[in-house]
Amino acid sequence: QVQFAESGGGLVQPGGSLRLSCLASGFAFDTTAMGWYRQAPGKQREFVGGITGGGTTNYVHAVEGRFTISRDNAKNTMYLQMKSLTPEDTAVYYCHRVGTFDSWGQGTQVTVSS
């Protein structure tokens, strides 16, 4: 059974940093492209960035230069390092296999506010 468990969210002031983690199970993690997604209040879920099994990353323009995705295949874990956070980054953050119809995890709430 494919599962995703996101963690590491919280309340942070504008300009602050957070690191999210995603523990995945139920599939061959090390060869699978993974993505981070987010859903802000009242908006649709959107793609934030992704990483291939080999470690190549890509990001949407809104987060490029501020967010960094990495993975530890030995731990079946993907990370999202976020810096220079703004209130517009407030959302529930999810991880998922890119291009699949797996069920989504619970996500982790990130709130950027002073």
Throw out a few tags for this protein.
114 residues, mainly beta, six-stranded mixed beta sheet, 48% strand
Rounded radius of gyration (Å): 13 Å
Q: Helix proportion of residues, in percent?
A: under 10%
Reported for the largest beta sheet, the result is:
6 strands, mixed
Q: Round the mean pLDDT to the nearest integer and report it.
A: 96
- How many strand elements? 10
Based on Cα principal axes, name the global outline: globular
Question: Low-confidence parts lasting 5 or more residues at pLDDT below 50?
Answer: none
Distance between the termini: 40 Å
What order do the strands of the largest sheet run in, or round the barrel if closed?
2-10-9-4-5-6
What portion of residues belong to β-strands?
over 45%
The helix-and-strand class reads: mainly beta
> How many H/I helices?
0
Order of secondary-structure elements: EEEEEEEEEE
Q: How would you characterize this protein structure?
A:
With 114 residues, the protein is an all-beta fold. The chain is built from no helices and ten strands. It has strands at 3-7, 10-12, 18-25, 34-39, 46-51, 57-59, 67-72, 77-82, 91-97, 108-112. A hairpin with a 5-residue loop joins strand 5 (46-51) and strand 6 (57-59).
